[in-house]
Amino acid sequence: ENRRTNGKPLKASTKYGIVKAYENHIKPVLGNIALADITTQMVNDFRNSLDPSQPVMIRNTMKVLRGMINTALKPDINGNPPILQMSPLTASEPKPESKHDIVIATPDEVKTIYEAMPKAYAPSILLASLCALRIGEICALSVADIDFRRGVITIAHTRSTTPNTSELVTAPKTSKSARTEMMPESLAATLKEFIKEQGLSKDDWLFPMRTDRATPIRTNKLRYYYDKAKLAANRPDLHFH
User: Which pTM value belongs to this model?
Assistant: First the structure.
């Protein structure tokens, strides 16, 4: 709760990921061991016990363990001496290699995917392909974020992915992610018509949930529609972003 990144508290999604990594992987093996007693052998045995078929999980779990150990190497917030004098971590965690080379979609494939999407969410495909918006950024867009006069889209939020959170949108992924993107004239015309057809006002979400227009669509729901639509273009390998 007290940890800060660049002076800011951790986002709810970051906290959730840390807790899940600890509860699911670290706690069952190392949970009963005092930090002062942890050894390099214990850390290496723990690392080797993790499922090698899940490199991303391993990297995220070891990142949490490294954060705990690095904290234990420093005096606490009250000035008490560090719990550990030397780190039991002796090796860095390699970044998982990309599983495949991404073959970019052709204009015709994008058009096919766009046409296969539900009409209420079809423009999300154009926002991703023409403006390079992430899926969370698209889900968090409001009509007010689109400036038709200047031809730009303001990205100021991303859709929260933390389960059971009351915080529907949060700050973008990084400080540099808050930005404006130029909007092609053809996309502007499509969005204008879309907003009119959907009966959206300036205060509405651009892509609300079908069952609750006061709630922006969840990323996993939009990805569900996209995963079905991309099959129409025979591109099951494509990722949204």
Answer: 0.71
